[in-house]
């Protein structure tokens, strides 16, 4: 091609044009693909922006960093309230969480659960079960949890000299109804005295 410049009547401009044409031909399909990907990414980003990823919305405010508090572990269906933390966005507590009871009301903000498809499949919940420390008690509790297809994250248990057992369970819960079903079934196990959601 370079040899032809100024020899067979092809001007340098024409040669450049041909080169450019070839480059354009090569780039066209790639460009289209890229713009498709970009468009998809944009759609995804827009969708993500609306959802906080934890299934909770701050009413009337977008793009706030929202997280679930670790103290009271709210699950969908719980009454919830947002607490504006210093520099860390909004932490979501259960309405009756003692940790926010004495906080400045100006720092509380309305939040709400998003639709089911925006919620997570699993929310961590801590339960404390007390009962009479007899043989097989822990096994029966774990069996009941298993029967409800609920994942267990952690189990600890202790008992005192009066044969009073305290078992702490961390389980993954979908919503309040799911939690109620499990708590109900554990309460029906003989020698179980109390089942409570723990708040740290
Ligand atoms: Zn809390």
TrEMBL record:
<dbReference type="InterPro" id="IPR045600">
    <property type="entry name" value="RelA/SpoT_AH_RIS"/>
</dbReference>
<protein>
    <recommendedName>
        <fullName>ACT domain-containing protein</fullName>
    </recommendedName>
</protein>
<dbReference type="Pfam" id="PF19296">
    <property type="entry name" value="RelA_AH_RIS"/>
</dbReference>
<dbReference type="InterPro" id="IPR002912">
    <property type="entry name" value="ACT_dom"/>
</dbReference>
<feature type="domain" description="ACT">
    <location>
        <begin position="126"/>
        <end position="200"/>
    </location>
</feature>
<dbReference type="GO" id="GO:0005886">
    <property type="term" value="C:plasma membrane"/>
</dbReference>
<dbReference type="InterPro" id="IPR045865">
    <property type="entry name" value="ACT-like_dom_sf"/>
</dbReference>
<dbReference type="Pfam" id="PF13291">
    <property type="entry name" value="ACT_4"/>
</dbReference>
């Amino acid at each position: 091609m370079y040899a032809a410049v100024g020899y067979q009547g092809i001007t340098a401009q024409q040669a450049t044009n041909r080169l450019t044409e070839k480059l354009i031909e090569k780039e066209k399909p790639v460009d289209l693909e890229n713009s498709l990907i970009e468009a998809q990414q944009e759609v995804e980003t827009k969708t993500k922006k609306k959802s906080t990823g934890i299934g909770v919305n701050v009413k009337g405010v977008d793009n706030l960093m929202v997280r679930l508090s670790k103290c009271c572990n709210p699950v969908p269906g719980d009454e919830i309230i947002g607490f504006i933390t210093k520099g860390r966005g909004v932490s979501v507590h259960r309405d009756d969480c003692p940790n926010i009871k004495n906080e400045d009301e100006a720092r509380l903000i309305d939040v709400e659960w998003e639709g089911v498809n925006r919620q997570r499949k699993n929310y961590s919940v801590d339960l404390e079960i007390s009962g009479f420390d007899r043989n097989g008690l822990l096994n029966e509790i774990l069996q009941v949890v298993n029967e409800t297809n609920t994942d267990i994250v952690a189990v600890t248990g202790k008992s005192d000299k009066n044969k009073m057992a305290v078992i702490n369970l961390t389980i993954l819960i979908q919503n309040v109804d799911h939690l109620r079903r499990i708590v109900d079934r554990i309460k029906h196990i003989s020698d179980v005295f109390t089942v409570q959601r723990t708040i740290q």
